[in-house]
Amino acid sequence: QVHLVESGGGVVQPGGSLRLSCAASGFSFSGYGMHWVRQAPGKGLEWVAFIRYDGSNKQYAESVKGRFTISRDNSKNTLYFQMNSLRVEDTAVYYCAKKYSTYFHYWGQGTLVTVSS
Amino acid sequence: EIVLTQSPGTLSLSPGERATLSCRASQTVSSSNLAWYQQKPGQAPRLLIYAASSRATGIPDRFSGSGSGTDFTLTIIRLEPEDCAVYYCQQYDNWWTFGQGTKVEIK
């Protein structure tokens, strides 16, 4: 049974940094690409980043490019999201999701990031 | 970037009725790259339909997807109270984008 658990969310001031983690279990983590998708309060879904199964290819939405970095440690079955230069508009629930073809197959429960002074 | 526009914004129906949700793309989308998700209040999204018309594992056959090109539809027959949720369409064309969602309310 696929299980994804995000952690690391919290309250941070504008310009600050935060590192999210996503612990994966129930599948062969090293064989699958992974995504981060976010959802601002009361809003829709926004894809923000993707990493290939082996970490060799990464893609970012324009809204986070240059500020956020996706990475993974296949030996620890863990996905990461380093978020720097945070802005108020980055406030959202951040979900990690397992890739299946061009879809988001399984999702974690999400972790809330609040950027506020 | 392909923009997905969903309609209506909100659908209010009674149990047992049929819901028809629309997703229109600003450019042609390959059917193999079109999916639908269900998000219940306070929960993470769940994959419902992929490749425009294939049901994901464990999804009841009350849910069906159809369409091609720029127009796609999610149909839910025999609505149940548990179907109360926001439904999103999603496409991939070098980037992943979602529609803004349709909220289904059960009267």
Structural class of chain B comes to mainly beta
Evaluate the radius of gyration of chain B.
13 Å
Sketch the topology of chain B as an H/E string, one letter per element: EEEEEEEEEE
Give start-end ranges of low-pLDDT stretches of chain A.
none
Gross morphology of chain A: globular
Range of strand content of chain A: over 45%
Largest sheet composition of chain B: 7 strands, mixed
Rg of chain A from C-alpha positions?
13 Å
Write down the overall geometry of chain B. globular
Strand segment tally of chain A: 11
- Encode the helix/strand succession of chain A as letters: EEEEEEEEEEE
Q: Biggest sheet of chain A, open or closed, and with what strands and sense?
A: 7 strands, mixed
Largest interface, C-beta closer than 8 angstroms, per-chain residues: A-B, 20 and 23 residues
What does this molecule look like?
The complex is a heterodimer of chains A (117) and B (107). With 117 residues, chain A is an all-beta fold. Chain A is 0% helix and 54% strand. Chain A has strands at 3-7, 10-12, 18-25, 34-39, 45-51, 58-60, 68-73, 78-83, 92-100, 103-107, 111-115. Chain A is globular and about 40 Å long. The N and C termini of chain A lie far apart (40 Å). The mean pLDDT of chain A is 97. Chain B is mainly β and 107 residues long. Chain B is 0% helix and 58% strand. Chain B is built from no helices and 10 strands. Chain B has strands spanning 4-7, 10-13, 19-29, 34-39, 46-50, 54-55, 63-76, 85-92, 96-98, 102-106. In chain B, the strands form 2 sheets. In chain B, strands 2, 4, 5, 6, 8, 9 and 10 form a 7-stranded mixed beta sheet that branches. A 3-stranded antiparallel beta sheet of chain B has the order 1-3-7, with no helix packed on it. Chain B is globular. The model of chain B has no long low-confidence stretch (mean pLDDT 97). Classes of the chains: A mainly beta (117), B mainly beta (107). Chains A and B meet through β5 and β10 of A and β4, β5, β8 and β9 of B.
